From TrEMBL:
<keyword id="KW-0106">Calcium</keyword>
<dbReference type="InterPro" id="IPR000008">
    <property type="entry name" value="C2_dom"/>
</dbReference>
<keyword id="KW-0479">Metal-binding</keyword>
<dbReference type="GO" id="GO:0061669">
    <property type="term" value="P:spontaneous neurotransmitter secretion"/>
</dbReference>
<dbReference type="InterPro" id="IPR001565">
    <property type="entry name" value="Synaptotagmin"/>
</dbReference>
<feature type="domain" description="C2">
    <location>
        <begin position="106"/>
        <end position="228"/>
    </location>
</feature>
<feature type="region of interest" description="Disordered">
    <location>
        <begin position="53"/>
        <end position="84"/>
    </location>
</feature>
<dbReference type="GO" id="GO:0098850">
    <property type="term" value="C:extrinsic component of synaptic vesicle membrane"/>
</dbReference>
<feature type="domain" description="C2">
    <location>
        <begin position="268"/>
        <end position="401"/>
    </location>
</feature>
<dbReference type="Pfam" id="PF00168">
    <property type="entry name" value="C2"/>
</dbReference>
<dbReference type="GO" id="GO:0046872">
    <property type="term" value="F:metal ion binding"/>
</dbReference>
<dbReference type="GO" id="GO:0006887">
    <property type="term" value="P:exocytosis"/>
</dbReference>
<dbReference type="InterPro" id="IPR035892">
    <property type="entry name" value="C2_domain_sf"/>
</dbReference>
<dbReference type="InterPro" id="IPR047022">
    <property type="entry name" value="Rabphilin_Doc2_C2A"/>
</dbReference>
<dbReference type="InterPro" id="IPR043566">
    <property type="entry name" value="Rabphilin/DOC2/Noc2"/>
</dbReference>
<dbReference type="GO" id="GO:0017158">
    <property type="term" value="P:regulation of calcium ion-dependent exocytosis"/>
</dbReference>
<keyword id="KW-0677">Repeat</keyword>
Length: 417
């Protein structure tokens, strides 16, 4: 039903949390008094705006209430009511998240393409351009760049970043960023977070806005084009610098983020491409260490010196250890090395293959980067890869696996090269 508008001579918008206005109570009142929330929030009702010549004397009579945040009220001419100068006050639909409900704003739009190449297990992200970005610098411009994370499990290991475009609110990147080792399981469960930030050489880089795209929206080998408005992220300040009113909101948002990523998740440390094949002629397992991608950086130079170790557990005689050569200063090493475990197929069904990636250090213990276990007790793609290897002998099966921060118990005592 269309909202009904009625003329009310004394109707004026309500400014929440500002003394002297109706509706000044609630959680934002104390926050505004403490100087934490400095924006004027205009409370209104849903529906289209009334005609321009009657706008100052109109107010909707029914419909769900919405809140619009006016971030430029301090720039209005003296004597102008904030509600008159903000044309966007009727433009914002009620947001689907608490984050956007608290701090909606015009942050700009981002245009990009996504393509999931199922054959090569790659996610191609083409960052094209942004328009109408929020000014972040004193000159009224910004130095924007785009960074990508995969959720859950966001960390430096899976962060990709474009170049910075200087002094512009309408940057054009036309850059292709690629995630390797993306599986069908990732497409089903993961979300791509695309953040636009302003680079500041003299202080910390500033967040402008973000977009989150569930990868399940993508179809294999079909490029999907996006042109979406950026959303605002609520900055979670330290509890000591926040009012009591906003401290509860901050805690709630942190719990919401943790719930979104799921319970008990391990930090992702990169991907590894493994090949498994049981040779009936040689009566043993061939393990191929092909390459790694997006490894976590363990050295101060932002890189690692990675190598890979494999064990077949249980290993009573402690003779199942194999290791690759060390690749210097890289987060995307290529090994192309193969190891052989002589064993009957029936015995192999009770074993677990442990694969760990390490950072080689001279003069001190090597750093654990990440690991994965394949066997009957594994989960997801790791268990499926092991099962398919046993069921399809004499067939080389290549699969990508996620390296996590969980150190296998037996590997903890084996940090040396």
């Amino acid at each position: 039903m269309e909202p009904r508008w009625t003329a009310t001579p004394r109707a004026t918008p309500v400014i929440l949390g500002v003394p002297g206005h109706r509706g000044g109570g609630g959680p934002f009142a104390a926050a505004a008094a403490a100087g934490v929330v400095r924006r004027l929030q205009l409370q209104y009702f849903c529906g289209d705006a009334p005609p321009a010549h009657t706008q100052p004397r109109w107010q909707p009579s029914r419909g769900p209430r919405r809140t619009h945040t006016c971030t430029h009220a301090h720039t209005l001419p003296q004597g102008t009511h904030p509600s008159r100068a903000c044309p966007a006050r009727f433009a914002h639909p009620w947001p689907g998240t608490l984050t956007h409900a608290l701090f909606p704003a015009a942050l700009g739009t981002l245009e990009f393409d996504l393509l999931y190449d199922q054959a090569s297990c790659a996610l191609h992200c083409s960052i094209l351009r942004a328009k109408g970005l929020k000014p972040m610098d004193f000159n009224g411009l910004a130095d924007p760049y785009v960074k990508l994370h995969l959720l859950p499990g966001a960390c430096k290991a899976n962060k990709l970043k474009t170049k910075t475009q200087r002094n512009t609110l309408n940057p054009v990147w036309n850059e292709d960023l690629t995630y390797s080792g993306i599986t069908d399981e990732d497409i089903t469960h993961k979300v791509l977070r695309i953040s636009v930030c302003d680079e500041d050489k003299l202080s910390h880089n500033e967040f402008i806005g973000e977009i989150r795209v569930p990868l399940r929206r993508l179809k294999p080998s079909q490029k999907k084009h996006f042109n979406i408005c950026l959303e605002r992220q609520v900055p979670l300040a330290s509890p000591s610098s926040m009012s009591a009113a906003l401290r509860g909101i901050s805690c709630y948002l942190k719990e919401l983020e943790q719930a979104e990523q799921g319970p008990g998740l391990l930090e992702e440390r990169g991907r590894i491409l493994l090949s498994l094949s049981y040779s009936s002629r040689r009566r043993g397992l061939l393990v191929g260490i092909i390459r790694c991608a997006h490894l976590a950086a363990m050295d101060v130079n932002g890189y690692s010196d990675p190598y890979v170790k494999t064990y077949l557990r249980p290993d009573v005689d402690k003779k199942s250890k194999h290791k690759t050569c060390v690749k210097k200063k890289t987060l995307n090493p290529e090994f192309n090395q193969e190891f052989f475990y002589e064993m009957e197929l029936s015995t192999l069904a009770t074993k677990t293959l442990e694969v760990t990636v390490w950072d080689y250090d001279i003069g001190k213990s090597n750093d654990f980067i990440g690991g994965v276990s394949l066997g009957p007790g594994a989960r997801g793609e790791a268990r499926k890869h092991w099962r398919d290897c046993l069921q399809q002998p004499d067939t080389a099966l290549e699969r990508w696996h996620t390296l996590t921060s969980e150190l296998p118990p037996a590997a903890g005592a084996l940090p040396s090269a």
